[in-house]
Amino acid sequence: MTLAAPPPARKPSSPEPPEAARLTAALLGWYDRHRRVLPWRAPTGVTADPYAVWLSEIMLQQTTVKAVVPYFQAFTTAFPTVRDLAAADLDAVLRLWAGLGYYARARNLHACAKCVVDRHGGVFPTTVDALRALPGIGDYTANAIAAIAFDVPVVPIDGNVERVLTRLHALEEELPGAKPRLRALADTLEPADRAGDLAQALMDLGATICTPKSPACVLCPWAEPCAARRRGDAETFPRKASKKEGRLRRGAAFVAVRPDGAVLVRTRPEKGLLGGMTEVPTTEWTTTFAERSARDHAPALGVARKDWRRVPGVVTHVFTHFPLELLVFVAQLAAGVDAPAGSRWVARGDVAGEALPNVMRKVLEHAGIDTKPGAPSMKRAAPNQPRPSSRISKPKRSPR
DNA sequence: CAGCCGTGGCC
DNA sequence: TGGCCAAGGCT
User: Fold this and answer.
1) What is its EC number (predicted)?
2) Which tens digit of pLDDT belongs to each residue from A58-88?
């Protein structure tokens, strides 16, 4: 991780360095001046901690640096080593992950920690293939960890690298079909000397200069060789096949509250949407939801159909592949009502500590229940529990 | 291999 | 405001 050495003096007859070597050198020189300081990133000249690299890479999958930072701090505080993480309960991991999304990542994170301890003696393997074999680590992450933590001379390809390289070469081929060609282009770079720095330099370039919308080409170390900049349409790369949008699904959520403030919840199935996370009982979420019969699906608590009071307005939420609209019904229960099979009561002060996905935070807030940590409970919630974006629809009034 | 998986921020 | 996007992996 030394600063780039000045180019060796060459005799007049020496050939120019190959194009790839010049590209790599220009990028690394820029990185040495403009690298971002990030919690998981070692100072210049210091080897990064593989545990920190792995944890950050998993969190950063399809997730912004800004969103990740507080979660990374919370995890390294709660689990300073991979052994601590492996020894933790999955539920504790999910609670700490709540709000970050893509919850299969948290389950795989926990499984991966166990594998590292059980199969590798608590030490991360150093080869791409061995890393690739671990849960939650795919092609990109295996190459990224190998390069960043162990300086294996490989170039990981993520969304940033795709964008940077398709622009550099003005590659017209659409993604994802163009992936093999991108791999070939990435392999023309020269990671041999500083693989970790090169990988992070590509990502920093993509995140700060070669951005999706308004790339700052004037500041770019690759401005001169960039084919897309020369054409003047860098922001139109990469080319992508259009994806179809999901249809609106609707449903109803049921918030049952005891006199002491306890709320009825259940745990979602391990796999699939919001797997393993906490929710209030709901109907199925369908494109053909019938509001009239919604109350028929309320949990069996011995309350009259009419005692499920509809909270005006709706909760809206957009998942990756479909938008969701939930009606919210609230019922005030008598003390001592048993929770139906498969569900449980959660004390008012413990709601914030549950593994609540944001859509459920919205539902509870819509029903007037505080999901923020710190209320009348001794129990600690995730220290970084983000608020649900309070974009709950106002009650709809029919125009007159 | 294309569909499934969250969430927050941006313009 | 809503459509798009972010350091992808799994099936």
Assistant:
1) 3.2.2.31
2) 999 999 999 999 999 999 999 999 999 999 9
